[in-house]
């Protein structure tokens, strides 16, 4: 690179490749190792080369077999590297000079960040299940503190080869740090040649300077907090609307309704960015590998299958990377939970959507004692994004006994909710701050309770910014800025607005809509220190508003 840092790449070419034949390139840049030591090809390499593409895999600087160090995730230096690699690819004798960048999660972030460079060789991207808004959609939804992020940070340092981190991760996972564990964890694939192993060791020595951002995560609870000039917003692709829109690079964007907040990210981008976008929101776990539809059994396979999802991605690249079809398509294809049906729309919310509101109840105020053991379980939407574990929400009727619930009467007809549910609570708490969690659930005639979606808010962030916002159909306009935070007055009733993560779900005739309220999600979120232990809710002055589609 421009500063002398050596970046490790794997290049896979279709075989046989005639001397005069040039091919387009699919590029994936990662901080999770482009390959493990001992690996020789994969389903990924076969998929792309059979489709007629060169595949270039990149270890981000400060990770894998690459040299350098990491001052933050998705740093300016890292993103700038990708522009130089795009130029390098275009200069190769086998290259047409046209590149599509793709990837899941962090690798999707790198693909989207590349568009900021306005590099002429980048002709399309596929940021799959990536982090448009890292603060609100992943790390601190509603300003609360996700627990699994610290496991992810430890795992990332272990991948970077930081001294002692592999054993730190073993302890977090309850495993002995022995030779068997070290062998299971493995090492990144070195570059080819007799010096590959020595170069990998030298690169790992440089990684020791990587900044540990765990203390930053702990100390900085607000969206505008900075450390060393860096904030969580710097790593969020949504912070670069102007630059990315100006690139005019078309996007293929899969996301999951139950995959942390990736669906909200896909919808906000759709409403705010000018790029051509083909968005696909399904009932999937992170990466689309498994089914997460809470109405289905955990054993059900993902549909479309992962293979079919990849065929859709390759088809998109065929139109925009292999060929040059400048058709500005902007559409969303989305799946409705409980109905098991796909629909397509060019506008969001879909045409004909109307808001229907209900009061939560009537009569006297309800006093809820916060149960610190309340939980959505170890297979929640917030764990799957950072661990790639399954997302499973079993029958919640027992779990709801720990929550304050409000359940409507049997529905007289099917109701299809598509968009962002909003709950407005007239409430008081007994401490200056609290984490409030709100769940939208379906109650079947047999009593089964099915999780649909959720929202949360640390009440210090309750201020709603005035004015119109381009993605107001996706997010309530809380700034999560330290300057806007203010404590609650214990015992004083206030109006609190909480937006839930967008969804599309069918509540069938005879089923009932339930709103469940909690002050904890044990195992998934870190409890707020000295947070409220008691909520007082006025149900007659509290409402749920659902976007009901035709």
Description of the structure:
With 550 residues, this protein is an alpha+beta fold. It has 13 helices and 21 strands. Strands 10, 11, 14, 17, 20 and 21 form a six-stranded antiparallel beta sheet that branches. Helix 12 (306-322) links the parallel strand 7 and strand 8 (330-336). Helix 5 packs antiparallel against helix 6 (165-172). It is globular.
First-last Cα distance: 54 Å
Radius of gyration: 24 Å
Kindly state the percentage of residues in helix: 10-25%
- Counting DSSP H or I runs of 4 or more residues, the number of helices is 13
Which descriptor suits the 3D outline?
globular
Strand content: 15-25%
Low-confidence parts: none
Number of strands: 21
The average pLDDT score comes to 96
- Which class do the helix and strand fractions yield? alpha+beta
Keywords:
alpha+beta, five-stranded mixed β-sheet
Question: Nutshell version of this structure?
Answer:
This protein is α+β, with helices and mostly antiparallel strands and 550 residues long. It has 13 helices and 21 strands. It is globular.
Helices and strands, with pairings:
Blueprint: E1 9-12, E2 23-30, H1 43-50, E3 54-59, H2 76-90, E4 95-104, H3 106-114, E5 122-128, H4 134-139, H5 148-159, H6 165-172, H7 179-185, H8 196-207, H9 214-219, H10 241-247, E6 251-256, H11 262-272, E7 277-282, H12 306-322, E8 330-336, E9 341-345, E10 354-359, E11 366-369, H13 381-387, E12 404-407, E13 415-419, E14 422-429, E15 435-443, E16 449-458, E17 494-499, E18 503-507, E19 512-518, E20 534-537, E21 543-548
Parallel strand pairs: 2-3, 2-4, 4-5, 6-7, 7-8
Antiparallel strand pairs: 1-3, 8-9, 10-21, 11-20, 12-19, 13-18, 14-17, 14-20, 14-21, 15-16, 15-19
Helix pairs in contact: 5-6
């Amino acid at each position: 690179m421009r500063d002398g840092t050596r970046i490790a790449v794997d290049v896979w070419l279709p075989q046989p490749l005639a001397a005069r034949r040039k091919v387009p390139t699919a590029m994936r840049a990662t901080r999770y190792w482009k390959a493990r030591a001992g690996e020789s090809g994969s389903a990924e390499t076969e998929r792309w080369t059979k489709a007629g593409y060169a595949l270039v895999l990149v270890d981000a600087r400060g990770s894998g077999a690459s040299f350098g160090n990491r001052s933050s995730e998705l740093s300016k230096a890292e993103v700038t590297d990708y522009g130089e690699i795009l130029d390098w690819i275009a200069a190769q004798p086998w290259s047409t000079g046209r590149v599509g960048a793709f990837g899941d999660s962090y690798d999707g972030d790198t693909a989207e960040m590349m568009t900021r460079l306005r590099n002429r060789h980048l002709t399309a991207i596929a940021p799959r299940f990536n982090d448009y808004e890292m603060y609100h959609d992943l790390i601190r939804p509603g300003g609360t503190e996700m627990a699994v992020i610290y496991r992810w940070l430890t795992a990332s340092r272990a991948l970077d080869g930081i001294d002692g981190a592999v054993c730190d991760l073993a302890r977090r996972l309850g495993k002995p740090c022995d030779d068997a564990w070290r062998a299971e964890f493995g090492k990144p694939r070195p570059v080819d040649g007799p010096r590959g192993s020595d170069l990998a060791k030298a690169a790992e020595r440089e990684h020791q300077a990587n900044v540990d951002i765990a203390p930053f995560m702990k100390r900085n609870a607000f969206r505008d907090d900075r450390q060393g000039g860096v904030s969580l917003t710097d790593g969020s692709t949504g912070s670069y609307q102007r630059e990315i829109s100006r690139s005019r690079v078309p996007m293929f964007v899969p996301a999951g309704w139950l995959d942390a907040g990736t669906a909200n990210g896909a919808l906000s981008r759709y409403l705010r960015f000018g790029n051509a976008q083909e968005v696909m929101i399904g009932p999937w776990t992170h990466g689309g590998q498994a089914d997460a539809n809470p109405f289905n059994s955990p054993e059900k396979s993902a549909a479309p299958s992962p293979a079919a999802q990849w065929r859709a991605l390759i088809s998109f690249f065929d139109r925009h990377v292999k060929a040059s079809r400048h058709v500005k398509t902007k559409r969303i294809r989305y799946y409705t939970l409980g109905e098991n049906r796909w629909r397509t729309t060019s506008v969001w919310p879909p045409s004909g959507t109307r808001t229907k509101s209900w009061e939560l109840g009537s009569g006297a105020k309800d006093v809820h004692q916060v149960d610190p053991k309340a939980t959505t379980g170890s297979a929640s939407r917030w764990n799957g994004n950072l661990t790639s574990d399954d997302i499973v929400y079993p029958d919640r009727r027992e779990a709801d006994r720990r929550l304050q619930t409000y359940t409507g009467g049997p529905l007289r007809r099917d109701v299809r909710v598509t968009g962002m549910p909003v709950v407005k609570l007239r409430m008081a708490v007994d401490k200056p701050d609290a984490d409030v969690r709100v769940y939208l659930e379906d109650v079947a005639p047999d009593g089964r309770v099915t999780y649909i979606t959720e929202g949360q808010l640390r009440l210090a962030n309750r201020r709603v910014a005035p004015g119109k916002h381009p993605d107001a159909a996706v997010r309530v306009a809380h700034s999560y800025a330290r300057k806007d935070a203010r404590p609650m007055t214990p015992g004083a009733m206030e109006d609190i607005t909480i937006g839930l993560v967008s969804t599309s779900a069918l509540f069938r005739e005879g089923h009932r809509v339930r709103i469940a309220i909690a002050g904890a999600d044990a195992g998934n979120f870190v409890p707020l220190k000295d947070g409220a232990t008691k909520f007082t809710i006025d149900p007659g002055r509290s409402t749920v508003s659902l976007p009901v589609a035709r």
